[in-house]
Amino acid sequence: MRLFVALIPPGEVVDDLERAVAPLRAQDRTLRWTRAEHWHLTLAF
């Protein structure tokens, strides 16, 4: 079993990050990106 501790960013932060990442997503459509609702900051694994 694995356990990790993470922080989930507030919605407005996720929105800002989505806008910042959008141009990168468009550059390489072969990459599989994680949906924004699954984004988190891992503190310990």
UniProtKB/TrEMBL annotation:
Q: Does the keyword Ligase apply?
A: yes
Q: Where is the Phosphoesterase HXTX domain?
A: 9-45
> What Pfam families has UniProt attached to this entry?
LigT_PEase
**Keyword set for this entry?**
Ligase
Q: What is an example of a GO molecular function annotated in this UniProt entry?
A: ligase activity
Protein name listed in UniProt: 2'-5' RNA ligase
Organism, by scientific name, is Carbonactinospora thermoautotrophica
